[in-house]
Amino acid sequence: MSPRISTMSEDYVRAIYSAEEWDDKGVGVSDLAHLMGVVPSTASENVRRLKDAGLVDHKPYQQVRLTEAGREEAMKMVRRHRILETFLHDVLEFSWDEVHEEAEELEHAVTDRFIDRIDKVLGFPQTDPHGDPIPRKDGTVASSSTISVLTAPLQADLEIVRIRDAEPEVLRHFESRGITPGSTVRVLEKSDVTALISLQVGRQRIDLPYTLGAFIRVKLG
């Protein structure tokens, strides 16, 4: 068994993978700094270390992308994180806006054996509380064809599949309006002028800025 990479590296490769899930173009250093809660110079230095370790590819002023080795490490961390989130939510009854921070603290302390045992106890769930797919033990992920709600057709019945693991207050806002995985929505209107998308959730009409709409992925119901 190969030794685990550093905690910093684990955090960064998981963050890069998660960003690539939502935007296949990769992630810039400044955006990565925001995700990690550090200044750009710190993120840049850590990206250099990851590149030296063979975990990422990066050229100045271009996006950061995982190498094959980096993706392998990222999948381990994503699996840990999402299984822990599911355990915290389903068994310990944490709310979906609380589990991310708690899982971040726990994921570096537990063993693969511990994660496998939790996975079995949970019944091998395929998604976490936000609808994000949980990688299997072999590193593969079940395929799921989804689109951004921003590109969804008007007046079609849509099922919310995933909500980006955003700031806790955003998740609380979504939940208060019935915007959760499994819910049915319709896109009523989109306005590039106001950068707003109007959704029907139940009997409610909800106007969201495009920046929040980008956190929602759906499939045709």
What CATH architecture of the domain at 147-220 do you see?
Answer: Roll
And the CATH topology of the domain at 147-220? SH3 type barrels
Largest sheet, order of strands side by side?
3-8-4-5-6-7
Sequence of secondary-structure elements: HHHEEHHHEEHEEEHE
Strand segment tally = 8
At the first level of CATH, the class of the domain at 147-220 is Mainly Beta
Q: State the helix count.
A: 8
CATH superfamily of the domain at 147-220: Ferrous iron transport protein A (FeoA)
How far apart the termini lie comes to 43 Å
Gross morphology? globular
Largest sheet: 6 strands, antiparallel
Indicate the proportion of strand residues.
Answer: 15-25%
Whole-number radius of gyration? 18 Å
Q: Roughly what percent helix?
A: 40-55%
- Average pLDDT works out at 93
Which structural class do you get from the secondary structure elements?
Answer: alpha+beta
Low-confidence stretches: none
Pfam families: Fe_dep_repr_C, Fe_dep_repress, FeoA
Organism: Gleimia coleocanis DSM 15436
Subunit structure: Homodimer.
Domain HTH dtxR-type: 1-67
Structure description:
One of its GO terms (cellular component) is cytoplasm. GO terms for molecular function: DNA binding; DNA-binding transcription factor activity; protein dimerization activity; transition metal ion binding. It is found in: Cytoplasm. Homodimer. Residues 1-67 form the HTH dtxR-type domain. By secondary structure, the protein is α+β, with helices and mostly antiparallel strands. A six-stranded antiparallel sheet has the order 3-8-4-5-6-7. The chain has a two-stranded antiparallel sheet with strand order 1-2. The protein is globular. Strand 1 (56-57) and strand 2 form a beta hairpin. Helix 4 crosses helix 5 (99-106). The termini are far apart. The protein is built from eight helices and eight strands. Among the domains are: 7-70, Orthogonal Bundle (Arc Repressor Mutant, subunit A); 147-220, Ferrous iron transport protein A (FeoA) (SH3 type barrels, Roll). It has helices at 7-22, 29-36, 40-52, 68-90, 99-106, 112-122, 168-176, 210-213; strands spanning 56-57, 65-66, 147-148, 158-163, 184-191, 196-201, 204-209, 216-220. The mean pLDDT is 93. Helix content is 42%, strand content 17%.
